[in-house]
Amino acid sequence: MLEPNADHRAAVAQAAGVAASRITLTVMLDEWAGADARRRAVADTVCALATGCASLAAAIAEGPLAGDLARTLSSGEAGEGQKALDVISNDIVIGALKAAPVAGVASEENDAPVLLDPTAPLLVAIDPLDGSSNIDTDISVGTIFAVFPRPEGADASEPSAFLQNGRDMLAAGYVVYGPHTAMMLTLGAGTWHFALDRAGLFRLVDAEVKVKEGAAEFAINMSNYHHWDVPVRDYVDDCLAGKKGPRERDFNMRWVASMVADAHRIFQRGGIYLYPGDGRKGYTHGRLRLLYEAFPVAFLMEQASGSATDGRGAILDLTADALHQRVPFIFGSRDEVARVSRYHLEPNGHGERSPLFARRGLFI
Ligand SMILES: O=P(O)(O)OC[C@H]1O[C@](O)(COP(=O)(O)O)[C@@H](O)[C@@H]1O
Ligand SMILES: [Mg+2]
Ligand SMILES: [Mg+2]
């Protein structure tokens, strides 16, 4: 049987030029929390989430050997039917959060908040499994989470407790279950990158993640081109025009259809992700959910010198007005996100755009 042993791993690490042993998430969190009670609560919550995600990684790694994880249990609007693995993921992460100081959980998989310890200081918003359309194809999926304070006196079983501003978030992160399992985490002072080892520990890869500028790579589901509004079409047209267009360089395109995997690539090499609102029924505000998809990724991005917008303003300046609210979501390298914002905010020719390339159309 091919079972990688410690020697094998050390050899790989040596060959890759990295240290074989790295500082763990638990140690980082412990150091960060110190004697501060609020920080300690956040650290315990992130630890609980990490434990849940490590078990989930093991279940996902078994694939079809763990049963038909991709079987559809119910169909939903916007192609979001619930799959078996969605439900398993939800049970695992909520089960793990029972050990943390969390009053309630707003999950993509539950219509209403799930009440845990009503007097606890924190709330968690979570997408237990992002990219569920990819389960049966062995493509990366993920978990996305946001940690909020429980407002004074708020009842965590009520959606209103969760309807907070993006800048109220205390911590946010995601775990991507790819060829290796990785976590991106922010506690509000930078973005940290970890990888899961075979013993189930998240080990530090980079404590100063920075999203590069100047990348020529965009991610969008091109099949929706004819449903987009003018600013988004103009932006993509300009990228597609390549060297002969206003951008004067060729662009590459990627679309994993697991937002976490697209985000993870952008953290590694820059670029931009767009899921705008479009003309299809149910897609006026795009597809992604504000509380547990856009907020956490926007927080991670801003803490890594990237940015995130709905086309009009920073995602983190929004205040949620419904638990499962959708939002047009554009994030990535700061220069590209700023450019897309200009296309939205400057209807007549997008600032520096040459009239040769200007499209006439209705500004939304
Ligand atoms: O199939 P589409 O419309 O391109 O949508 C893909 C997008 O939908 C999502 O999968 C939504 O996440 P869920 O799997 O949690 O519903 C994003 O991760 C992804 O970018
Ligand atoms: Mg999702
Ligand atoms: Mg999901």
From TrEMBL:
Homotetramer. HAMAP family: FBPase_class1. Residues 213-344 form the Fructose-1-6-bisphosphatase class 1 C-terminal domain. Binds 2 magnesium ions per subunit. It catalyses: beta-D-fructose 1,6-bisphosphate + H2O = beta-D-fructose 6-phosphate + phosphate. Mg(2+) 1 binds at residues 108, 127, 129. Residues 45-205 form the Fructose-1-6-bisphosphatase class I N-terminal domain. Pathway: Carbohydrate biosynthesis; Calvin cycle. Gene3D superfamilies: 3.40.190.80, Fructose-1,6-Bisphosphatase, subunit A, domain 1. It comes from the Bacteria. InterPro entries: FBPase_C_dom, FBPase_class-1, FBPase_N, FBPtase, Fructose_bisphosphatase_AS. GO terms for biological process: fructose 1,6-bisphosphate metabolic process; fructose 6-phosphate metabolic process; fructose metabolic process; gluconeogenesis; sucrose biosynthetic process. This is Fructose-1,6-bisphosphatase class 1. It comes from Xanthobacter flavus. Belongs to the FBPase class 1 family.
